[in-house]
Design goal:
single chain; Porin; 8-stranded antiparallel β-barrel; 1 helix; elongated
């Protein structure tokens, strides 16, 4: 599913749903710190995410997010290919971006703190650039890209400072595959219209 189709489907859903007394569109910006757990090890990435959604009723909202990666993880390795041939390589791994669509289930209450559960679908795009050298031979350099998608789930806390201004703290398992887990911890600000 492409980014445009995912965002268009979310927008179409939010504009065709019946209005309720608490119905309101909202948008926000989050800083997200992600950590992978894969067959190679752990890697940390940071991203800025723009989110937009629609609070349909007090306890249910739909939301679309797009996050842009802001950091690169660098790993170095030395390998012995054959006796006397040593390969030195540097790997630069970046989470280029991610996007997703989610359902938000809130616990209605009369305080400024509103806990919630989130479930949906995320696609993350990674880029790997490898550079290196073999003494006496040409340098090595290549780039690969990979997309990983998965159902996502998590929990969070919205803090309502006023009728319009909110903040949130959230933990989400963005990608949950047998070979890769991508966990995200994010904080952000939002505005309800």
């Amino acid at each position: 599913m492409t980014k445009k189709k995912l965002l268009l489907a979310t927008l179409a859903l939010t504009t065709t749903l019946p209005l309720a007394a608490t119905a309101a569109p909202y948008m926000g910006l989050n800083y997200t710190h992600t950590r992978t757990d894969d067959i190679v090890g752990n890697m940390d990435f940071n991203a800025l995410a723009l989110k937009g959604g629609y609070q349909i009723i007090d306890w249910f909202a739909v939301e679309a997010r797009y996050g842009s990666g802001r950091s690169t993880q660098t790993e170095r390795g030395i390998y012995i290919a054959d006796p006397g041939i040593v390969i030195e390589e540097t790997y630069n791994i970046k989470m280029k971006d991610y996007y997703g669509a989610y359902a938000i289930f809130s616990l209605p209450n009369s305080t400024m703190f509103k806990p919630y559960l989130v479930a949906g679908y995320t696609e993350a795009n990674f880029k790997l650039k490898t550079t290196g050298s073999i003494p006496g031979y040409y340098p090595i350099s290549f780039t690969e890209s990979d997309k990983v998608n998965s159902p996502s789930y998590g929990l969070g806390l919205n803090i309502n400072f006023s009728e319009h201004l909110t903040a949130n703290l959230e933990y989400m398992r963005m990608i949950d595959k047998s070979y890769l887990e991508l966990d995200a911890l994010s904080v952000g600000l939002g505005y309800r219209f």
